[in-house]
Amino acid sequence: MGNRLSKIYTRTGDDGSTGLGDGSRTGKDSLRVTAYGTVDELNSTIGMVLAIEGVPADIAEALVQVQHELFDLGGELCIPGMAMIHDADIDRLEQVLDHFNADLPALKDFILPGGGMAAATGHLARTVCRRAERDVVALSRVEDIRPQAQRYLNRLSDLLFVLCRVMARASGHGEVLWQHERRRKGSA
């Protein structure tokens, strides 16, 4: 870390602007700030999953690694032109996903968010991840954003889904399946 923060407030953002990592300033409502802000929210939501007692150690280890990479991704989005997420990071996510998915039964039904506190919070993280991905896509339509950022978030949402399945089973709650037949024929 290049600079230590000795004072948390600066008052420079009181006008609705914020400083980017390259020293330039932009509006707090800009697409760039929205994108890295949602990545930060995702990181915080994963922190909530990790704070739940009983998360399996191998899942916790994978999620802590993801948190570090999300911090890197936020830095990349905060500093125009910076490259911190690489193809190797995406490859690693795929390997972790394949590892956790290997012992799961094939999906035959849609799964509803639930399956215990850790799995339900993981589903929240997954939906925040999808929003972060949409925010990065929106930003990429108006500014040059490396494709690795979007690919990382796309793969991460898949990993989070699989981890939720594993956590639901590990907790003893099991997965909550969508029951499409619950509606009676002819009812609105």
Description:
By secondary structure, this protein is mainly alpha-helical. The protein is built from five helices and four strands. A two-stranded antiparallel sheet has the order 1-2. α2 packs antiparallel against α5. The longest helix has 25 residues, at about 145-170. The radius of gyration is 19 Å and the shape is elongated. The model has no long low-confidence stretch (mean pLDDT about 90).
Arithmetic mean of pLDDT: 91
Low-confidence stretches: none
C-alpha Rg (nearest Å) = 19 Å
| Helix proportion range | 55-70%
* DSSP strand tally: 4
Count every helix, treating DSSP H or I runs of 4 or more residues as helices: 5
Coarse morphology:
elongated
What descriptive keywords fit this protein?
56% helix; 5 helices; 188 residues; two-stranded antiparallel ribbon; mainly alpha
Summarize the entry for a quick read.
This protein is mostly helical and 188 residues long. The protein is 56% helix and 5% strand.
Any chance you could write out the topology, listing elements then pairs?
Elements: E1 17-19, E2 25-27, H1 31-50, H2 57-78, H3 87-101, E3 111-112, H4 117-140, H5 147-171, E4 176-177
Antiparallel strand pairs: 1-2, 3-4
